Predict the 3D structure of the following.
Amino acid sequence: MDKDSPLTMKDDFNRIEIAINMGSFSKEYDIKVGDQITVMVK
């Protein structure tokens, strides 16, 4: 996987984790713990 590629995964509690490979999704999109987001799957 390339550096800065977005990725999603499921954690042990069946929640979705969203990340950027070797980066910070929260900094890139200016979100913080507790913020609500919408995930669209195509």
